[in-house]
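step=encode ok
step=design start
structure_in=
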């Protein structure tokens, strides 16, 4: 009875072992493709628990000075 429960896992392990030996490029490509989403959802919570804080966002506009603007003169500005 116990062997009938473990048999599919044993067969799967043998198949994966054979694929890793006969076509390693495809095997490891699939492994990396499956690990990527796991890391995408697993790493951010771990980073937060370790004290990581995201940096301040990069400014998207130039700060305007807090003074009256002087009119432009010269260099063909309409005069």
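sequence_out=
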């Amino acid at each position: 009875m116990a062997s009938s429960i473990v048999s599919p896992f044993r067969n799967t392990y043998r198949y994966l072992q054979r694929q890793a030996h006969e076509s390693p490029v495809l095997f490891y490509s699939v492994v990396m493709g499956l690990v990527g989403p796991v890391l995408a959802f697993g790493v951010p919570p771990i980073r937060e628990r370790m004290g990581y804080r995201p940096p301040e966002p990069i400014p998207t506009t130039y700060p305007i000075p807090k003074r009256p603007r002087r009119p432009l003169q010269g260099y063909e500005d309409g005069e």
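step=design ok
step=annotate ok -> Residues 46 and 52 are 9 Å apart (CA to CA).
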